[in-house]
Write a structure and sequence with these properties.
Layout (H helix, E strand, L loop, with lengths): L1 H25 L1 H8 L9 H14 L7 H21 L7 H34 L10 H63 L1
Helix pairs in contact: 1-5, 4-5
């Protein structure tokens, strides 16, 4: 049941996960410059080499073993904790630290989402032996397309209703302004008549 619920979003999750990897690959020089600033208690030369190999290896790889994935997540989480502690130290470049922290937290989140997708794929293969992941099958791809179409139709209908309410509100507002102007004009005429009557008397 859970697999069916998350199936339409599996493609988006995978795209998001690989986008994070691509972004890190594009920003490799920035990341390396940030890593070099850390003290030995946070990162070492081996961790820098590991980060380089991780980015280079995963930039074009669709998946990797769960054990190495879990180790990567643990390493990133440890570095996140260390970096948060570093943010409290005076004299550091906090802007670059925050940038690095955001990238790390985003990478951890993307890895966890990808891991969840992999777990659901395995769960479905156990439930349906010999079957591929539901979101890789044509029927489920069409299901995802149908879901996207339904969302599009829902937003379109909502936009139409909003436009209709806005048009009605504008018409009502215009009518009220015209009524107010008419009443104001009538009030002036009545006052003018009273003044004339007073002057005659």
């Amino acid at each position: 049941m859970t697999a069916l619920l998350i199936a339409p979003f599996a493609t988006l999750i995978s795209q998001f996960y690989h986008k994070i990897k691509t972004m890190e690959n594009e920003d490799l020089e920035t990341l390396l410059a940030l890593i070099e600033e850390y003290d030995d208690d946070c990162t070492t030369d081996s961790s820098i080499d590991d980060t380089e190999s991780w980015v280079a290896h995963n930039a074009h790889e669709p998946s990797k073993p769960k054990r190495s994935e879990s180790a990567r997540i643990k390493a990133d989480r440890k570095e996140v904790r260390c970096l948060k502690a570093k943010l409290g130290i005076p004299g550091r470049n906090r802007s670059r630290d925050r940038h690095r922290l955001e990238l790390l937290e985003l990478r951890v989140e993307a890895a966890l989402l990808q891991q969840r997708v992999d777990d659901l794929e395995e769960e479905e293969r156990r439930v349906r032996p010999g079957a591929t992941a539901s979101w890789m099958a044509p029927n489920d791809i069409s299901l995802a397309d149908t879901t996207n179409d339904s969302l599009y139709d829902a937003w379109r209908d909502l936009a139409k209703k909003h436009k209709m309410h806005r048009t009605n509100a504008e018409i009502e507002n215009r009518n009220l302004r015209e009524l107010y102007a008419h009443q104001l004009k009538l009030t002036h005429m009545v006052k003018k008549l009273f003044r004339k009557q007073s002057s005659i008397e």
